């Protein structure tokens, strides 16, 4: 089966092919019922009809926060929890996995929740986290053991050893032993991977203010662990950002809201559903198969299906994260912005100047964007944030209801006159962000799509010269310590990939179309002809760690590699990352 047929099968729900047929739960508030079942070719059993899930009847949950602004040490546990994800008075609950300070033990601190609590830290005040794995001996979701994953070539099983997990602080300027290397996984029984360096991680917080996030990063199972709920925000502040807040130039307090957008599917009884069909191959040994991508039809924000947010007629700082496995979002309010929306930051810091948005906002998996939304003079108004990004992006299937709606904004709260209205500054940083150090080397790298031994699509990273390379192939990217490099990444696949580099904040230099001769077996390129380069969009001109690399284009980025050790770079479509679209790199 080719890739497009895989994707078309996964687009059945919500496209006319259906066949009818953050509240941690203490007690059920309504009699338990089930949602109408529908069949879908990606699932062995009927799943819940997404259209039957109520929209805009649940208030937006706000993640709890862990104050580490003075630095210090915290313990956070990854543990099962049951939450009312669907809401709407259905009386259904959903087993998920989350993070919290209590875990399965009682005590003080935040309870386990999905998403996990938001850390609030300050630059140059180190934070140490003991990440405790309390995950059970059975996964919530179907595990494909044919791909390269944590337990491959071992006698370990989840039933005997537990679920492997390790946490990565995405966007963090972190030493390698605390970076969450995919082979540094460990389980509740103490079983661990070859790069394991302990369960206590240190974050020096040596970078500027940024919207970071933490999530599971275990080899070959990240897509499932994150889908189960293992993710949360990590806000890093610095003196500059704090001065903007103190001088009433940025919304703060209750007017600063984190929003993680994710897509999911469910079974009629409220449990999470994830594709579990076998591969279409005569040699398939049995069991579920990894999919090229996953596109759910139920949109969650902060772990709640289609919530609403009541706001005052004032400005709000919205810190957006696309936490979905594969889905891109092209966000607007029915195609435009009927209220002023201004972008102020990329993943790892402020833009030079505030950027008023005059078009929909495209955000790919792993990217973060900070916005200031202005609801002044709009009391009584109501807006629906919508999504029209095709799946896969940019030329796939058009988005179909109900996945075309995300969040409802209601300007319904009375204005608190005691809170000063912020006034955005003309500039947000001293100068436009650049990586100033001259490049010591320019590398030509590759995005390639091949097939595996079962005929399944297998996306790969690689080099222009060698072609596509697997995770275990020898390292080809080895920047010297404290040098800058330019990476030119040629995308020969039909889709846009969000490419993430650990450790660094990079500058997006430009993109250009290209033509080349490609070896159909290896993917190696020759006779490359590059067209006219275009600068990055104005919303990409801040410090970034994840960038959209469109098909048929070479995307150039520049980074400074200032910590020695072993790191990784990968596509942040989690189904790609788990199926070999990830490579190690070594700072020497």
UniProtKB/TrEMBL annotation:
<dbReference type="Pfam" id="PF07731">
    <property type="entry name" value="Cu-oxidase_2"/>
</dbReference>
<dbReference type="InterPro" id="IPR011706">
    <property type="entry name" value="Cu-oxidase_C"/>
</dbReference>
<keyword id="KW-0167">Capsid protein</keyword>
<keyword id="KW-0946">Virion</keyword>
<dbReference type="InterPro" id="IPR008972">
    <property type="entry name" value="Cupredoxin"/>
</dbReference>
<feature type="domain" description="Plastocyanin-like">
    <location>
        <begin position="477"/>
        <end position="587"/>
    </location>
</feature>
<dbReference type="InterPro" id="IPR045087">
    <property type="entry name" value="Cu-oxidase_fam"/>
</dbReference>
<protein>
    <submittedName>
        <fullName>Spore coat protein A</fullName>
    </submittedName>
</protein>
<dbReference type="InterPro" id="IPR006311">
    <property type="entry name" value="TAT_signal"/>
</dbReference>
<feature type="region of interest" description="Disordered">
    <location>
        <begin position="529"/>
        <end position="550"/>
    </location>
</feature>
<comment type="similarity">
    <text>Belongs to the multicopper oxidase family.</text>
</comment>
């Amino acid at each position: 089966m080719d890739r497009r047929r895989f994707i078309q099968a996964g687009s059945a729900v919500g496209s006319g092919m259906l066949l009818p047929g953050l509240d941690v739960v203490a007690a059920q508030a309504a009699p338990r019922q089930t949602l109408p079942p529908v069949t879908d070719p990606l699932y062995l059993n009927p799943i819940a009809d997404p259209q039957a899930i109520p929209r805009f009847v649940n208030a937006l949950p706000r993640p709890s926060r862990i104050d580490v602004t003075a630095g210090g040490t915290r313990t956070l546990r990854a543990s099962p929890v049951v939450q009312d994800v669907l809401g709407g008075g259905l009386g259904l609950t959903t087993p998920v996995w989350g993070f919290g300070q209590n875990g399965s033990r009682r005590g003080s601190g935040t309870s386990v929740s999905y998403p996990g609590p938001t850390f609030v830290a300050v630059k140059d005040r180190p934070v140490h986290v003991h990440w405790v794995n309390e995950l059970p001996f059975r996964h919530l979701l179907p595990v494909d053991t044919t791909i390269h994953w944590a337990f491959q070539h071992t006698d370990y099983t989840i039933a005997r050893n537990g679920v492997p997990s390790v946490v990565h602080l995405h966007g963090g300027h972190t030493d390698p032993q605390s970076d969450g290397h995919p082979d540094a996984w460990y389980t509740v029984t103490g079983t661990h991977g070859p790069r394991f360096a302990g369960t206590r991680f240190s974050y020096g917080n040596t970078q500027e203010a940024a919207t970071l996030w933490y999530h599971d990063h275990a080899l070959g199972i990240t897509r499932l662990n994150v889908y189960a709920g293992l993710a949360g925000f990590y806000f890093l502040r610095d003196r500059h950002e704090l001065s903007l807040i103190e001088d009433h130039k940025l919304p703060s307090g209750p007017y600063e809201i984190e929003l993680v957008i994710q897509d999911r599917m469910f079974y009629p009884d409220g449990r999470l559903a994830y594709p579990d069909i076998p591969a279409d191959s005569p040699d398939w040994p049995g069991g579920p198969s990894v999919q090229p991508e996953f596109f759910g039809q139920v949109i969650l924000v902060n772990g709640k299906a289609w919530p609403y947010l009541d706001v005052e007629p004032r400005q709000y700082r919205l810190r957006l994260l696309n936490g979905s496995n594969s889905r891109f979002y092209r966000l607007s309010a029915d195609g435009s912005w009927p209220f002023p929306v201004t972008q102020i930051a990329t993943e790892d810091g402020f833009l030079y100047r505030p950027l008023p948005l005059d078009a929909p906002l495209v955000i790919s998996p792993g990217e973060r964007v900070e916005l200031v939304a202005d609801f002044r003079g709009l009391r009584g108004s109501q807006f629906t944030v919508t999504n029209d990004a095709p799946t896969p992006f940019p030329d796939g299937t058009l988005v179909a209801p109900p996945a075309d709606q995300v969040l409802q904004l209601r300007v319904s709260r009375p204005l608190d006159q005691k809170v000063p209205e912020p006034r955005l500054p003309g500039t947000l940083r001293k100068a436009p962000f650049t990586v100033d150090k001259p490049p010591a080397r320019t590398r030509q790298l590759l995005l390639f799509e091949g097939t595996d031994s079962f005929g399944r699509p297998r996306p790969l990273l690689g080099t222009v010269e060698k072609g596509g390379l697997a995770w275990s192939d020898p390292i080809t990217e080895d920047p010297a310590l404290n040098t800058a490099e330019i990476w030119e990444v040629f995308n020969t696949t039909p889709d846009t990939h969000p490419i993430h580099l650990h450790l660094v904040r990079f500058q997006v230099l430009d993109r250009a179309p290209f033509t080349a001769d490609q070896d159909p077996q290896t993917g190696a390129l020759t006779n490359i002809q590059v067209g006219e380069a275009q600068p990055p969009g104005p919303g990409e001109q801040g410090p970034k760690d994840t960038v959209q690399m469109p098909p048929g284009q070479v995307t150039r980025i520049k980074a400074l590699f200032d910590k020695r050790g072993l790191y990784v770079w990968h596509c942040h479509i989690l189904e790609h990352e788990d199926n070999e679209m990830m490579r190690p790199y070594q700072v020497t």
